[in-house]
Amino acid sequence: MAAGRGLRAPGFAAFLLLLLLQSPPALPRGAAERRCFCQVTGYLDDCTCDVETIDAFNNNKLFPRLNELLENDYFRYYKVNLKKPCPFWNDSSHCGIRDCAVKPCPSNEVPDGIRSGRFKYSEEANNLAEECEEAERLGAVDGSLSEETQEAVLRWTRHDDSSDSFCEADDILSPDAEYVDLLLNPERYTGYKGPDAWKIWNSIYEENCFKPQTVKRPLASGRGDDGGHTFYNWLKGVCIEKRAFYRLISGLHASINIHLSARYLLQDTWSEKKWGPNVTEFQQRFDEVLTRGEGPRRLKNLYFLYLIELRALSKALPFFERPGFQLYTGNKIHDAEIKDLLLEILHLAKSFPLHFDENSFFAGNKKEAAKLKEEFRLHFKNISKIMDCVGCFKCRLWGKLQTQGLGTALKILFSENLIEKIPESGPSYGFQLRRQEIVALFNAFGRISTSIKELENFRNILRNMQ
Questions:
Q1: Rounded to 5°, angle at Cα 54 from 187 and 348
Q2: What interhelical angle do 229-237 and 240-262 show, nearest 10?
Q3: What is this structure's pTM?
Q4: In terms of C-beta density within 10 A (0-12 exposed, 13-18 middle, 19 or more buried), how is residue 325 classed?
Q5: Alpha-carbon distance 2 to 296, whole Å?
Q6: Whole-number mean pLDDT of the chain?
């Protein structure tokens, strides 16, 4: 799974020559671009938004500010347990490639405010949280707790064990959980591929996307293909929620493939490594001809995923703009500056003119809608568990983070009524986000935003190919 930051190239001319040497046979100027992007334009299915509006908004406005935010301490340190066993099969093979490794942070490098973990939800809730935790500890032997305190204990417990979670959360108190500096462990091509990687995605698509076994996915390994007609006829016939679920997973898959194509290992010598865009890799995954029409569909699903996560950010604004909420690292002045930047990004997200309308989800009969929502949640939670089966540790890290980020976005979208009831001051019992969820939410959206930006780069490269 994939990403990274800047590339130090010896010169644009030499770098472009390297790209051209990696490219498929020559096509008329602009033909390569059209084969990847000709269908990635105009309005998206199930949406009132168009691709061009998203490109302009993301690349010119949101992407630069979001990148700046994610370089700050609060968002760069993510605690994760990469040693959890796979819950679905016994194969414990791990990637032996050195680029698959993850370098954890020594504890003294993590800011005190983050490492202490005392700010469980936000500053204003901290004292009550500690009181409740103490009350819970004493509750079994102390029957003299006030009714108010007992009710507070129940409220916090109900939240911590609530059914609003879309992900299998890591036990960050486990001895195996470690802080990772995301900037020092960028998502990019690691060499992890083949049967093991295919097994992960096959399990996700075949067992968790509501698809019957009789309906074959387009281009599925070892199977005949009818151009996707049967599959897409099935997809059109299911409810919007199940259709959206598939498109979210497809969009996430597309984003990961863009990252590994954009941050590919171009040169590996004893003296240095060079990472950069691999046009051939990108075309193999998204060219209309090479993918028999699948590539452009995958890219449009990426834009759909972008709209969903952008909508969630706009909906979460009331939670983050409360005066008592802090992005706490221990540096009070810096924390206030980062909160200002965060709110600027959230207001920018809210200003987007063509938001996805999530009100079409889980509408109609309340009993049936509740049942479908629970299915939706459990299927996605299952996918988050599959991330513990990924053999490449760096891929596992970014897979866990991005599924938790998307799961947090879904949690926000389906908790709108609770968010609207959050008081301006004092703790919010109905809706909470832990630091782990906040870091995952913004970094996951950062990955999607980066993918949209990288598409612009690939479009320009392909346009100039001859």
A1: 85
A2: 130
A3: 0.83
A4: buried
A5: 20
A6: 81
